[in-house]
UniProtKB/TrEMBL annotation:
A Pfam family reported for this protein in Swiss-Prot or TrEMBL: PGI
Entry keyword annotation includes Isomerase: yes
Domain of life of the source: Bacteria
Organism listed in the record: Corynebacterium urealyticum (strain ATCC 43042 / DSM 7109)
Family per similarity comment: Belongs to the GPI family.
A GO CC term attached to the entry: cytosol
Xref: HAMAP family: G6P_isomerase
Protein name: Glucose-6-phosphate isomerase
EC number: 5.3.1.9
PROSITE patterns to which the protein is assigned, alphabetical: P_GLUCOSE_ISOMERASE_1, P_GLUCOSE_ISOMERASE_2, P_GLUCOSE_ISOMERASE_3
NCBIfam families, alphabetized: PRK00179.1 (NF001211)
Reaction catalysed by this enzyme: alpha-D-glucose 6-phosphate = beta-D-fructose 6-phosphate
GO biological process: gluconeogenesis; glucose 6-phosphate metabolic process; glycolytic process
Gene Ontology terms, MF aspect: carbohydrate derivative binding; glucose-6-phosphate isomerase activity; monosaccharide binding
Amino acid sequence: MSIPPNPQRVTSTAPWQELQDYKESFVGTTLREIFNQEATRVEDMTIQAGPLHIDLSKNLADARVMELLVQLGEAMGLPEYRDAMMAGATVNTTENRAALHTALRIPVDQNFEVDGVDVAADVHEVLGRMRDFCRDLRSGRWLGITGRTIKQVVNIGIGGSDLGPSMAATALRPYRTAGIEPYFVSNLDPADLSAALDALDPESCLFVISSKTFSTQETLVNARAAKQWLLTELERRGVPADTSAQRQAIIEKHFVAVSTNREAVTEFGIDPANMFGFWDWVGGRYSVDSAIGLTLMAAIGPQDFDQFLAGLHDVDEHFRTAPMHANAPALMGLLSVWYRDFLDSQSHAVMPYSEDLREFPDYLQQLTMESLGKSVRLDGSKVGVPTGPVYWGAPGTNGQHAFFQLLHQGTQLIPSDFIGFCNPHGEVTTQPEGTKMHDMLMANFFAQTRVLAFGRTADELRAAGTPEELIPHKEMPGNQPSTTILADMLTPRSLGGLIALYEHITFVQSVIWGINAFDQWGVEFGKLQTSDLLPAVRGTADVAAGDGSTDALISFYRQHRNEG
Ligand code: F6P
């Protein structure tokens, strides 16, 4: 099934032209003015998307802008491209693949066939095997080679094979109740693996080698080193590893793989019976809810993993069925285009007011920037307008004491998303008079978006008795846009909802720009260059990168490299 690249250029649509014209009179309008003019704004711009309560009203866009953005989405075929993606069309045209991550969370009682293949059955077969495996681990039925239960599960993977499961396992810390501690090793810097190995007990650890391609340098190097470490450490404890049968028996109990590449997994020495598969229609950065989530499932258990899938599906359904003017991912994606292309913003901040969600901005960086860091359209022509903003962020309240000053009184427009929860996991009551820490945290949360939106005027400062010479320094312009996302609690379900929300926001932007959100040719070329340079860096070939700077740097490195 295929859908042709959109021949329509966004800049030649009528709504784009109208937005250009309207922008001229809109620039300079304040959020205070917009709130005064639009009596039902908060109601109109608040959306329930699955488990997420989303307030868009503090965005720097009035009702007319929102109307034109919706028209822009329609002019670019957003509903049609959304439906095509979800139906399994080949939307990733440069790799000739579908992007069917929404099928990973399809409920068990729903059928879903693509080109004669029962995709739902395939997904649920793997999920079933994952559940059985995790139940065995958690109940102590799966034992290490010396008969010890598995207590430490180490995911070795990078990019999408690391960031999603690591972020989710951190976010769902309170759900890790079975005594299985998850670890994540990704970096080629040996410091990463060493730090994990220092904490591991070779008799009760299990490695999950996660790589869609099973050819990623970082993952294979770390996996080989982990294998060597395990054999050596077990041998020290009297477990023989002299024959290949003995080594195989150890690997069988302590290594499993998650991949689409059965052949490479077998070649690495992992029994294909201990491999959990997925499909080329799952992009790396969209794969946390595939078998790539195995370490997460081991840590939180199959039931909570099912809740996680349900949260993803909740938001898929919202994206699929809500009308565009009340569709949270559609509006958030369209607002991103508005800020990037009409109001010249360069970046987008994401602030989770939750320490457990601290890895969420890092996870989003791959999802959004690997997807939207493109400058040509699907048909190969130049996009011609700025695309993907830089996504960044840090948890509140820490961010308030680091970079918020630039948001409050700097010179750049930086839209942001504030993510908070009505209830914490575990209350802590403190001074004064039994105040709950979570209420304090959330008072900060609400205060920041309020100040960012509405600022503080010179008149208000004067009325508060501020000395005249300090007024320019204390005046806050406001009009810094934000979206507030609230959920009841940070649960598997609300986390699933958040992930699907941002997956779809990313897709929406790609449709408007007409770019491919599912390939990453720049990263692929970076990998090739590394292989080309390695011999010179190792000193087994002459330095000949071809450009003076790289040649000189590698020569300097070689001269200062201590061998041995
Ligand atoms: O970073 C580039 C990339 O290709 C990502 O898209 C992917 O998530 C990551 O490498 C890891 O790839 P693999 O799962 O095949 O090891």
